[in-house]
Amino acid sequence: MYLNFVFLKSKLFHFIQLLSMKRHFQGFLIILLTLGFLGNVSAQEKQKANISSIKWVNDQVELTILSPKSFYVGANIFVLYIDNIKIDRNKQYNIGKKGALVFYIPKSQFDQIKDQSTVWMTYGEYLESDFSNQLLTQFAKENPYNTWNLGVLKKSKLKK
């Protein structure tokens, strides 16, 4: 009986050692996997975008915005703000790996826009009524990854 007790005690000791080694191995594996994933993490970089062209098509203006990467496709929409005017009619497509957005501006709205007005774009319709440059500048500081200052609109570049 004493031998059985010593044998069981020995087996129990080995079993506890195996469990301890298994826990250490699991911990090591978790640390290794975590470090592997952290190697792929980088700071989010704001997508670049710029006004590519502006042209008359029928009774509206088509303003095209290009980006070196595809634009995000999700539940929100891209919205353009120029001179306190909100434009949300657009078409989104890709040219290879580059992204393109074409905004459609009715002639009546385009006539209200002053030359050299600042052009803003957001991903999502956040602003209800005040689209002033001051408010959009503040909004861009608070939401840098979904707000773009696209520069100024030069009506002289309008192609007919």
Write the layout of secondary structure elements.
Elements: H1 2-38, E1 50-57, E2 60-67, E3 78-82, E4 85-87, E5 90-95, E6 98-106, H2 107-112, E7 117-123, H3 133-142, E8 147-153
Antiparallel strand pairs: 1-2, 2-6, 3-4, 3-7, 5-6, 7-8
Task: Fill in the keyword field for this structure.
single chain, about 160 residues, alpha+beta, Immunoglobulin-like, 4-stranded antiparallel sheet, 8 strands
What does this structure look like?
This protein is an alpha+beta fold and 160 residues long. The chain has two domains: 1-42; 50-157, Immunoglobulin-like (Sandwich). It has three helices and eight strands. It has helices at residues 2-38, 107-112, 133-142, and strands at 50-57, 60-67, 78-82, 85-87, 90-95, 98-106, 117-123, 147-153. The longest helix is centred in the first third of the chain and has 37 residues, at 2-38.
The total of beta strands comes to: 8
Number of helices: 3
CATH architecture verdict of the largest domain: Sandwich
Report the uncertain regions: 38-43
Strand order of the largest sheet: 1-2-6-5
List the secondary-structure elements in sequence, H or E: HEEEEEEHEHE
What portion of residues is helical?
A: 25-40%
Mean pLDDT comes to: 78
Radius of gyration computed on alpha carbons: 29 Å
